[in-house]
Specification:
Chain lengths: ~80, ~425
């Protein structure tokens, strides 16, 4: 099981309505730049308990999921 | 060409959503419970662990606790269920435009026209199951068949997260041994009637004599016989096809011509009671009443009038209807048929108690009417009647609300 951590996200909204997250603010105050978005799809998070648009993102070469569960964003955190 | 129809059923819908959002609940017996403070303290939905202890939907909470001491009660989150239901329908609509919902958690899909794009009914069903699991985190059971009735039966046969196919060549082996109560529209009353004649399985119903069933159950008997034989042809309605209700009315052709004011009053009263009860079912009030009159020379007309205050009490409707009749029926000819219709409907919500005497008297009448509804639903339509009904039993033996609605709206929308 994972912790559901809501995070502050800076994102780009383009003219087609596409949303691209650019960076996120972690609990400890660190801002992480999102280098790439590898995949976008609707998905459930069984680990953290939630459902929304799931962005598979790469931060410093490491992959992670970022969920947009309108109107908030969350990540699955290790305890 | 044989149709390909799917029925998709979200398993333990409310409870599954709650367990998804609260991982700590998983594996424990869980029930979504109404609010005991508001006297809604019953089980609305439960998961498999709670079901295994014998907890059933509708059980009072104390009973559920007795059956299953470890049970966890959670309050319902309807906004979440609505959101899930909507997304599930969006997923379905990627495969066909013929999607008909049946409550929040069930849908029929007619994929006859899309099998050349997405594969067989079973292939589509399996894909749907996988997608719902991935995208929504809950499971569905899907029935695949050539009519809506068997598709629905199929979705109930294997749970959770399973596909059941019922083909026209094999339905006798699969469907006929099932208990007759599994069939859509065989409720408790019908079940009891059928059981008295040894009709305990769907197969026996299918092989019963049609005339006998008609005699026993009326038009429903014929319908059920068709269902059991796989002859249901009702269509899956188009997505977004909502039957917007604009008015609610009932009409009757009297068993004899209506001559006196009392004859008219009896009939208008019966029709008004039915219209009033139906408005309560849909939570409407009306501000206009319309009557239709046809005399014994088949000349007919309609007239309408406004109510002083929007409401739906049987008394207000029948008084207005009678007033309209007296104002307009100048010919004085005997009347053959009458109708009462409630128009300009609006939804009644969060009504406030009022200090205005007119409105508080309507509200009192409203309480009486719903008590009558309740008595009738428990003990039969004729268990409670107005005194005027006893003046002519032949005229008053009509029950328009139940006699004239053959199929509930939700199933036969078109």
């Amino acid at each position: 099981m994972a912790r559901k951590v809501f995070v502050e996200v800076t994102a780009k909204f383009d003219t087609d309505g596409k949303i691209t997250p650019l960076s996120l603010l972690w609990e400890d105050g660190t801002v992480y730049e999102i280098n790439r978005v590898l995949d976008v799809r609707r998905a459930a998070s069984l680990k953290a308990g939630g459902m929304g648009i799931r962005y598979t993102i790469s931060i410093g070469g490491r992959q992670s999921y970022l969920f947009y569960e309108e109107p908030k964003w969350f990540v699955e955190a290790k305890q | 060409m044989e149709r390909v129809i799917l029925h998709s059923d979200l398993n333990n819908f409310y409870a599954s959503v709650e367990c998804l959002y609260n991982p700590a609940l998983r594996g424990k017996p869980v029930a979504v419970a109404g609010d005991p403070e508001a006297r809604h303290g019953i089980v609305l939905a439960k998961n498999y662990a709670a079901k295994a202890c014998g907890v059933a939907t509708g059980n009072p909470l104390w009973m559920a606790k007795q059956k299953c001491p470890d049970i966890v009660f959670v309050p319902p989150h309807y906004d979440l269920y609505m959101k899930y239901s909507k997304i599930a329908r969006e997923i379905y609509s990627e495969y066909t435009d013929r999607v008909e919902s049946y409550g929040l958690d069930e849908c029929w899909l007619d994929v006859t026209g899309s099998t050349h794009l997405f594969g067989s009914g079973k292939a589509i069903a399996d894909e749907l199951r996988e997608r719902i699991k991935q995208e929504l985190g809950v499971t569905v059971s899907v029935g695949v068949s050539y009519n809506k009735i068997f598709a629905k039966l199929g979705s109930d046969m294997k749970k959770p997260d399973a596909t059941t196919v019922i083909t026209s060549s094999r339905f006798r082996e699969i469907v006929w041994p099932l208990p007759v109560s599994d069939l859509l529209y065989v409720g408790r009353a019908t079940h009891n009637k059928l059981r008295r004649y040894g009709i305990t399985t769907i197969g026996r119903l299918a092989q019963a004599n049609q005339d006998f069933l008609r005699h026993l159950l009326g038009k429903n008997g014929e319908m059920l016989w068709l269902f059991a034989n796989g002859l249901d042809t009702s269509p899956v309605s188009n997505i977004g096809a909502k039957s917007l209700i604009k008015s609610i009315g009932n009409s009757t052709t009297a068993p004899r011509d209506l001559v006196t004011d009392e004859d008219i009053r009896i009939t208008l009263r019966i029709l008004s009671e039915s219209v009033s009860a139906r408005m309560r079912e849909y939570d409407f009030v009306c501000s206009t009443v319309q009557i239709g009159v046809r005399d014994n020379e088949l000349h007919s007309y309609e007239r309408q009038g406004k109510l002083l205050y929007p409401n739906r009490t049987a008394s207000a409707l029948s008084e207005k209807a009678f007033e309209l009749y007296k104002q307009n029926h100048s010919s004085g000819k005997p009347v053959r048929s009458l109708s009462v219709r409630a128009c300009k409907l609006s939804v009644l919500e969060n009504e406030q108690l009022s200090l205005l005497p007119e409105i508080s008297s309507i509200q009192k009448q409203e309480v009486i009417d719903s008590v009558i509804d309740n008595i009738r639903s428990r003990f039969g339509h004729f268990s409670v009647q107005r005194g005027i009904m006893l003046c002519d039993k032949r005229l008053s033996s009509l029950n328009p609300k139940e006699d004239h609605i053959i199929h509930p709206e939700s199933f036969f929308k078109s």
